[in-house]
Amino acid sequence: MTVTTLRKEPAPPEVFLEEEHFEGGGTVPVREGNVWTGFSVHAMFRMLILSPTSEALRFSLAYGFGKFVGPWTLQRTEVARIERVRMWLNPQDALRIIPATGSPWYFLKHEPGTVLACLKELGCPVSADVGKWP
Fold first, then answer.
1. What average pLDDT does the segment 15-43 reach?
2. Is 20's pLDDT higher than 70?
3. I need a surface site. Which of 58, 62, 123, 133 has the fewest CB within 10 A?
4. How far apart are CA 45 and CA 25, in angstroms?
């Protein structure tokens, strides 16, 4: 028997998709004045929360840390492409969210196929190709 986390039934109404969020890790580019830096969280801690909607991708921190740092929002119109990325030494894949301008955003989760399916249902430009890290 094969166990998968991908949906077998048709997509629920968008009302339910608006409520979905995913816990994982990743890297979010942050601008500090004139300097671009990255805020990184390891996937093991599941502290970075991705809340996708049809208008935007919202990243926030879990466990109350979001009161001090974040949230970060990437508007849907700013997203050029979203692709699955194979990592070198990690057993899990990541998602690379490539905006029209600026550095790519990364989201790491043990089951990225579920996130990709949700983003595709919401109308995000999901690429079928698997890229290489970084």
1. 67
2. yes
3. 123
4. 7
The reported pLDDT for the residue numbered 104 is 86
Mind giving me the DSSP string for the chain? -----S--SPPPPHHHHHT--EEEEEEEEEEETTEEEEEEE-GGGT-EEEEE-SSEEEEEETTTGGGTS--EEEEGGGEEEEEEEE-SS-SSEEEEEEESSSPPEEEE-S-HHHHHHHHHHTT--EEEEEEE--
**What is the rounded distance in angstroms from the CA atom of residue 23 to the CA atom of residue 4?**
18
Give the pTM: 0.71
Residue type, 131: G
Quick one: pLDDT at residue 34?
64
Cα torsion 84, 86, 89, 94 to 10°: value is 0
pLDDT given for residue 53 in this prediction: 87
Cα radius of gyration rounded to whole Å, the chain: 15
Q: Which residue has the tokens 């599941």?
A: 46
